[in-house]
Amino acid sequence: MSDTSHASFDLPSPLPTHSITSSAHLASPTPNPPPLFSMAKLLPFLLLSLILSSALLLLRAEDNMPHEKPTEEQLLIRRSRYGPGSLRSYQCSGECGRRCSRTQYRKACMLFCGKCCRKCLCVPPGFYGNKQLCSCYNNWKTKRGGPKCP
């Protein structure tokens, strides 16, 4: 005779035996991005270190520069807006335009003023005269001994 009693086997149940309160833990875990507040704290530190290193480099560069005391003549020239070498060559056309603006011989004035300015790197103030403020401009003469610069 066969016994109809069932043997007890411990098979895993297809249904979970514990209760699920949320489905968040079932999703695959994603890596958390770095917290923004820590980057925000790092940025001022990086900026401060950049500024300090720049200042240190500037101080080092100044230490390597020779410290010569300028002569009295060099100080006078620096203070003078119209002394020899007070202009750059690209400024000549503007200064000559100012100097020659009231002459009836504008084309000739601009030509010779431009030559003088490129050589002397200065143009006297005003529309006429004041050449003593720019010695090179004042002392450059034509073949006949007349003034070369207007």
From TrEMBL:
What are the boundaries of the region Disordered? 1-27
Q: Which Pfam families match?
A: GASA
| Listed Polar residues bias regions | 16-25
> Which InterPro entries is this protein grouped with?
GASA
In its keyword annotation, does this UniProt entry include Transmembrane? yes
Q: What keywords appear on the UniProt entry?
A: Membrane, Transmembrane, Transmembrane helix
Membrane-spanning parts: 42-59
Its family?
Belongs to the GASA family.
- Spell out the protein name for this chain: Uncharacterized protein
Native organism: Vanilla planifolia (Vanilla)
